[in-house]
Amino acid sequence: MPVIAPVPAARPARIPNQRDGAEDGVAAGTTVDHLTETYRAHYRSLLGLAALLLDDTASCEDVVQEAFIRVHSARKRVRDPEKTLAYLRQTVVNLSRSALRRRILGLKLLSKPMPDMASAEEGAYDQLERDSLIKAMKGLQRRQREVLVLRYFADMTEAQVAETLGISLGSVKAYGSRGIAALRLAMEAPA
């Protein structure tokens, strides 16, 4: 992904909140000039680091810019100018993690879409099928109907049906297969 890195002006103006006009020394922290040179030399590599962690160019650029701003604000705490790049890299990683966390949280908070509702026509067909199934079930023998209702609507095993009805397992199988065959015939028959 090609990224065009903005290059800062040749020498930035002096930051107004520096104390008493004294220059920042190595002992006092990283200088603005050192940070500017680090920016020029490592902007693209830091952008590449962010690109490995994030998925879009705009977010990567935002993260790298924010990292430079934060390190600039805390440059007095970076006592060794050689560690400026390490601070920048760690800040890019941390900001990338935060951006991903915000995205995940945003996705979790999005309302879930409503499920597609059946059309009125589909509902009418479903009702007709239910009515014809109920009518066909009423036409079965009592034991066949009991076995099919317990087996398929109450979701019982054949052994549980046998125990509930007080009949043998073989009888449950026989009533079940005969009942399904009778239902098939009744449902296929023209009304």
Proper CATH architecture of the largest domain: Orthogonal Bundle
Main β sheet profile: none
The overall strand count is: 0
Mean of pLDDT: 80
Distance between the termini: 66 Å
How much strand? under 5%
Going by helix content, strand content and strand pairing, the class is mainly alpha
**Low-pLDDT stretches:** 9-27
Order of helices and strands: HHHHHHH
- Per DSSP, the total helix count is 7
Which fold name corresponds to the CATH topology of the largest domain? Rna Polymerase Sigma Factor, Chain: A
* Shape estimate: rod-shaped
Number of domains: 2
- Percent helix range: 55-70%
Write down the CATH class of the largest domain: Mainly Alpha
GO biological process, one term: DNA-templated transcription initiation
Pfam families: Sigma70_r2, Sigma70_r4_2
GO molecular function, one term: DNA binding
Protein name: RNA polymerase sigma-E factor
